[in-house]
Design a protein that fits this description.
5-stranded antiparallel sheet; single chain; alpha+beta; globular
Amino acid sequence: MEYNGAAIVAMKGKNCIAIGADKRLGQRQLTVDTNFKKVFPITERTYIGLSGLATDVKTLHDQFRMRVNLYKHREERVIEPKTFANLVSHVLYERRFGSYLVNPVVAGLDKNDIPFICGMDSIGCIDLADNFIVCGTAEENLYGACEGLWEPDLEPEELFETISQVLLNSVDRDAMSGWGAVVHIITPAGVITRDLKSRMD
């Protein structure tokens, strides 16, 4: 889980969600790429963050995209965040005896604009959260920063400021993650994506 490094966090706000991740791809302490994508859009209002082994991140993203498209054709509707979280859990549990080395974080707004976030372990055990969820090699730093900075019912701009401070301060204390970050704010009006600059060492 720590081979490539990662820092992913999702937070609830007032009818909005924020999910962010660092951009570093490494082989232990060696930095390989400084613009590696770890957060992917599944629908217009549902995103998934994948921390762990980079090859499994790519494999699972392709598999989730295929299954969501099949769902859309079969059901003739867009998949809801909670339903997608169960789909992710099912895909991971299918491979429980030779599991994918990833920890997913699912974040999104449902059709009633109610925020939903959850995390999972590598075999798909769902961890629902009312405030925030974190994963990656900077997990302990992220938990501490979230506990200190997160407040209930944050507006989108306040939520962006909070998640940005959490991400930047946490990756500064973790050698396996960093090199900038990307944050997605999901609101009923749309998605705002912003890149963050951080220390490049």
